[in-house]
Specification:
By secondary structure, this protein is α/β, with parallel strands linked by helices. It has 16 helices and 18 strands. α7 links the parallel β8 and β9.
Amino acid sequence: MHRRLVLGFCGPLRGAVERLAARPGDLTVVSPDDPPGAARANVTHRRGHPDDAAAYPDRADLVLIASGDDATNAAAAAAAREAFPDAHLVVHVGLGADAATQARIAAVADRVIDADRALTDRLAELTTGPGAGRLHRLYATLRRIDERLAVVMHDNPDPDAIASALGLVRVADRVGLDADACYFGSISHQENRAMVNLLDLDLVNLDDDGGVSGRYDGVALVDHSRPGVNDGLPADTSVDIVVDHHPPRAPVEGRFVDLRHDIGATSTLLSDYLSRGDVDPGESLATALLFGIRIDTDDFAREVSVADFEAAAWLVSRADLGRLERIESPSMTPEVVETLSRAIRDRDVRGDALASNVGAIRDRDALAQAADRLVSMDGIRIAVVYGFKDGTVYVSGRTRGTDVDLGETLRDALDSIGSAGGHADMAGAQVPLGILGDTDDDSEAALTEVVTEVIAGRLFETLEDATTLLEPGDGSEFAFEFPFEGWGRTADR
């Protein structure tokens, strides 16, 4: 049984003593006054001075010295070390402690806690610096919105977009503003559906509800930065708030703009707002934000920053890890299997780069999952999978182990005929079918041929200009195993 001893207790550490009292194991408190939690069955109170060894129990594994007088703490630390040479000794020291007293404590303590200084540093962190400034400006912007805010994700949102939108809804609620997490398109990726269903997330589909006009007094964009680009908003929509971690292709306008390209996930930015504002995310939102970070950083292996690790550490104790595991292991849909099969069958491999037109699709998220799998295959470092649906060609790409910036590559190749963007190793694009030329023949074979000629032609031409990776090859060494490890971990951008 773990034996804990508290010698004195001052105001800043009363809460810590109360929490110790609530935990299993024996707790003895030596102090002149009744300690917090003294009525508990596992708490023994001995009246005495903290440095009076005669008041100590026979054994102690952990000793916390927490009187409000530094000289007393120094004397108690020396006495406790002599009485319990093998115990872990934690000693509180205040801001007013002189150098000699601090030295006496440091000589015998395993850990010194300066609670006053920690509080001062925390207050400075919350009230000064870039992070505090961003939060204050965000609050001010939210308070200027009259009644209701639409927090708009990008089309067919991925976990990072969904979690970020819900995070901003929670921040808006903190200042008394009603807000909805909104999206256009569909949520079809099996992990994304599992996330929404298992966490019981409240989302508004703007395709079904007639857009934002007349319904909302303000608009926020999360996980993308321009209205009308990868969302169903009119391009001239006035935007109040933009929070994103993707590098923009053009200037971004908004009353509050937070673009941090060195951060791995937009969910990290929202976690920062919540933690700085001391806003409890609740279990469901914490789980969603943690999942968003993990997906966008590929389990902290891609474009990850210190801030992403810090956000995850803050979230993990608040999340439901059991439900997170269930979200990460959904069943694979037949559409995904079919799309992957066609991507493998119709691949065009040139050196380390693969492009594949899978033709007509029902689930655009299947493209991203196919690209995820193909880029992990032996000999492939760039994988781009594309198909068409409802008059639009959708493109999803992944890279690994190369210095090719896929986001920029797709922009250079396809921005002139559509829209493209994303990260260096994960990107996507959309191109209207009508812009590709003669598509009067509506047979799938004819459309597939036209789409392949334009998309693959532009892609490989751009890659040849950007890199020396592409060398003649027919892809005959292309090999794969099924099922794939980590199936379906990443959603499209």
